[in-house]
Specification:
This protein has 322 residues and is mostly helical. The chain has one domain. Helices cover 65% and strands 0% of the residues. Helix 4 runs antiparallel to helix 5.
Length: 322
């Protein structure tokens, strides 16, 4: 039978080694060298290619429409949630989540540079996920050219005295916009699918939620026996942190969903547009956070090499804490 005191010491050692080590000889230049530069360069090239695609396409696809189409006859209202809010709030939540998660790993130890290197890796991938999603969204808007629910209010066409009902006409037969709001507003009226607000809000929210789930429930797994050996106060603290973490994750998803709903309420998008935007943002977020977490071991190993305490065979390349 194993000595309970020995088991307790092993549990304590495991908890200590799960924390970030000291910085050692790690420099700020080493923090930059340790980043996943292959991924960074690939994302920059991808973003440039998407931007060029949008610029080359330039004008949105012209789709035929009818003056008596009820789905595009809604009033033109201001945005309930401006685009900058849909970007800034989820991004700040992402920064808070990552900073809190990596600060908890440091646990008061002098490992600021190590934690910063991990934060930089995680935040950069989150930003790349957002920029790629935004550009793919814009490419979709230009190629599809779906009319917004308030398109006729933007176009202000004059209804003919006598109506002739016809179907299957080309876009060239569209009624002329006699007094559009502005040229930019009229062009924007062709950018309904997919919703940029929705894709942006969801890419940040799902990326942050994915990171939060990994940090709270998977990063440092403990066995049931290890949990039972801890004091009641420690167990209650862990349970409270897990519960508060769940509320934080739900709040981020709720905000993203609120942004999506507001686009339908404001008559800026059809329901299918916001669903498409949400799925697009979610897909890229899952792709990026899954790959980012998997590549984090590469960064931590490079950090250990830069710090001069690399140990082959260890989980992150660094030696156990004495």
């Amino acid at each position: 039978m194993r000595d309970p005191r020995q088991l307790s010491l092993q549990i304590s050692d495991r908890e200590e080694t799960s924390k970030v080590r000291g910085d050692g000889h790690l420099t700020w230049a080493g923090v930059l060298r340790a980043q996943d530069w292959g991924t960074i360069i690939l994302n920059v090239l991808l973003i440039i290619a998407l931007i060029i695609t949008v610029r080359v396409a330039d004008e949105p696809r012209q789709r035929p429409f009818s003056l008596y189409d009820a789905t595009i006859s809604y009033p033109h209202n201001p945005d309930s949630i401006p685009y900058w809010v849909a970007v800034l709030v989820p991004f700040l939540c992402l920064l808070i989540s990552i900073a809190a998660g990596e600060a908890w790993r440091v646990g008061g130890r002098p490992g600021v540079k190590r934690a910063t290197a991990s934060i930089l890796h995680l935040v950069l991938d989150g930003i790349f996920a957002f920029v790629v999603t935004a550009q793919v969204t814009q490419v979709g808007k230009v190629l599809v050219g779906r009319l917004r629910p308030d398109f006729l209010a933007r176009c202000n066409p004059t209804a003919p005295a006598q109506l002739t009902v016809q179907w299957g006409l080309a876009a060239s037969a569209n009624p002329a916009c006699d007094s559009p709001l502005t040229a930019d507003e009229l062009r924007d009226g062709h950018y309904s699918f997919p919703s940029g607000h929705s894709s942006t809000a969801f890419v940040f929210a799902v990326y942050s939620v994915g990171y939060g789930i990994w940090v709270l429930y998977h990063r440092d797994r403990v066995t049931r026996l290890e949990v039972m050996r801890r004091g009641v106060g420690h167990r209650l603290t862990d349970a409270l942190v897990a519960a508060l973490g769940l509320l934080w994750l739900l709040a981020q998803l709720s905000f993203a969903w609120g942004v999506a709903i507001s686009r339908v309420i404001d008559y800026r998008h059809h329901p299918a547009d916001v669903v498409g935007g949400a799925l697009l943002g979610t897909s890229f977020a899952v792709l990026y956070i899954t790959r980012c977490v998997g590549r984090l071991a590469y960064v931590t190993t490079a950090i250990a090499i830069e710090a001069g305490d690399f140990v082959p065979g260890s989980d992150d390349g660094a030696p156990p804490t004495p």
